[in-house]
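BUG: 3D viewer hangs when loading the predicted structure for this chain

Environment: internal workstation, default settings.
Expected: structure renders.
Actual: progress bar stalls at 90%.

Input used:
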Amino acid sequence: MAAPMAVYPKELEREVTLQDGSRLRLRPIRPEDQDRLVAFYDGLSRQTAYQRFFAVMKRLPPNWARLLANVDYERRLALITEHGPPEAPEMVGVARYEPTDQADIAEIAFVVQDGWQNRGLGTLMLDALLAAAEARGIRRFRAYVLAGNMRMIDLLVRFTDVQERVTESGVTELLLTRRPAPAVTGTGR
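Structure tokens produced before the viewer hung:
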């Protein structure tokens, strides 16, 4: 018997605006996005693909694309950002969390198309992903980052609370939590 179809979390869909004024659509991934994931991978530079997957593949294998596009929206979630007309948008970023062998920790990973890097999209996607995970009861996260990928390590250190950081064999493993929102001050009069 097939597993029941996961309920698509429409509440996670929203328009977002980057620091430069660019408007994007943020939404959970859907199974029909698998071919778009292959095209997204094809658009990554070799360096960006290597930093995300720790290897460069000629093409994202279709079985990987199928696995990555089919999530349960609870224990496995991926958020994508799109740019362009609604009938044919371009996928420009993917953020995801996956279960680990520890029930209270999810592994996170994300990648942004080269032309969209350094515009605040990674920070925005990190916050949206961690907020969605927390809403589903996940509070601790693990990230594996190539030790030379200082931009990603810096992003995680600046915008999360890192509890552990270990580098071994060229890979930095971070255990982190979402940083609490700053307290609102003022009298409200």
